[in-house]
Request: fold
Amino acid sequence: MNTKVSVGAVEADLRSWADTYGLLRNPSLAARFDAARFGECAAFVYPDVPDLLVYAKWLAWLFVADDEFDENRAPEVGGIDGGILQFLPLSGKDCVEGTTGVTRALADLWPELCETMPLPLRIRFRAHADDYARSYATDLARARTGLAPPFDEYLALRRSSGAVDSCLDLIERQPSAYLTPAISGSPRILALREAANDVICWTNDVISLKKEMKHGEMNNLVAVIRQSVGMSWDAALQVATEMNSSRIRDFDRQQQEILQYFNDVPGLLEFIHGMQGWISGSLNWHRNSPRYAGE
Reply:
């Protein structure tokens, strides 16, 4: 975990930022936000970054936006499901003023978040963040039929709705882990990122299952397996856990092969270490955060 900055100070600053933009509209939301400890989450998944607060803001923003849509509290007008590129100008300047707390907070965060990004990384991050936002507009994301989506369709949706690609991009915000476009867009790196994405999202699905079921959210790996195969919840949970373990082995094998043949590529070792840290840090945060207590 990050020890260069005070996580407690980050938590306090993060809460002040959320209050400034009206992200916590009632005492219940505020209590959940405080209990989640997003500053601690950032410290787990981005160890040793010098400006932890900006990473914590991005993670907190993602979870606040996600909860709004998961719980059917998203505004009919001014939401993020129509895309967010207008709040993320490539220049990092003159951001469009948002009409909701979520969009105003995003416009405030973007100049600071993108300041140290090389242009290719800025372009890539914007595309991934917009893909995440637009995932809420899909029929699968909006459905509240009580039925889980088909397996293959769900896997594709989850890789967007989890926002993991944008979070992995932020590993490269540190110059030592930056990958040139030729490397970051290579088939081996894209396959490794996809494996990491699946592990992180499937872990969240397993741990957050009860929370999502309370809100009728059937876009969850366990629910998808249960419906597609026709098995009990316990059996589906076991299958999901085994799938996740297999995907972790995929990630390990792929990263070992990449480092064996391309270990002299600038930034590659640091980026892979960053992904390893994200996988383990995310699991540690899920285990420790009261957000998932009792799950």
Q: What stands out?
A: The chain has a mean pLDDT of 89. Residues 233-262 form the longest helix (30 residues).
